[in-house]
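User: I'm writing a tutorial on reading structure tokens. Could you give me a worked example: one chain, its sequence, then its tokens, then a sentence or two explaining what the tokens reveal?
Assistant: Sure. Here is the example chain.
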Amino acid sequence: MNFEEFNNDLYINLGVVAGLTLLGILIARTLIFKALLSFTSHSTTEHDDALVKTLKKPLTLIPVGIGLFALAQALPLTETYKTYTDLLIKSYFYLAIFWSLADTVDPLRDFVGEKYNFLSTTLRAWIFRALKLVFYLIGIVSVLELWGIDAASIIAGLGLFSVALALGAQNFFKNLIGGLLIIGEKRFKQGDWINIEGVAEGSVEKIDFRSTLIRRFDKAPIYVPNSVLSDSEIINFSEMPFRRIRFHVGLLYETSPETIMAIRKDIESYIERNNNLVDSDQVQSTIRVTDFNDSSIDVL
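And here are its predicted structure tokens:
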């Protein structure tokens, strides 16, 4: 076989591999993916649909990996290059597997949140975010071990660096502990209306590792360090079982004491009869003269 015939055969093989790879991607992303979506659409929950959608990337990565393997077999590589190529392809599959597992964490988090209420929304988000990080780390460590690199020795070698990093990241760990205290004590949760005197007031939008995002009522975001929140007095208006309504009724100074007492009793009777207001046995209602203004006697 001359050089020209060899090149022609090589190009044909590469073309066949590329064509089969594209065909595999097309089949995986259309037929298989749509079939899975059609199957899960008959269920009453949306979590299986979300899980299937996370499989779209793996269904693409698998044909690509197989195509790379076939391409490596078609190329006339020396033994050394063939060894490195095999390692690269195995590394690709390792990373693809753990990347795909990490993508399934989000629908799993939503499923657990719907079925089980023993975890708060914030704590559940933290746990599953850490789980996703674990999958990434396992994938990286697996690839390092595949290439003969001892990951344990690398981690041990980073010991001194970790100590120096910890000394420089004291505020980060302080805020992290503050966030754990906030979640553990259940001071507030996402969606609560809180007020930190002199710091911020608004709706809690997100509790992160280092800070908490509070959305003010003018829609301006404020990122408050968790250490500040854990050490501050916080008013959580969302935990109030009732709302106190204050009405000031202004009476003329010519109003007699008897009339003032009659007005007070009428207001008290109205409060007792109104079903939209809380009964007096649940919370105390106060109706009294509170102030003498320039032009009126104020009754609260």
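What the tokens reveal: Residues 1-6 have pLDDT under 50 and may be disordered. The longest strand covers residues 200-207.
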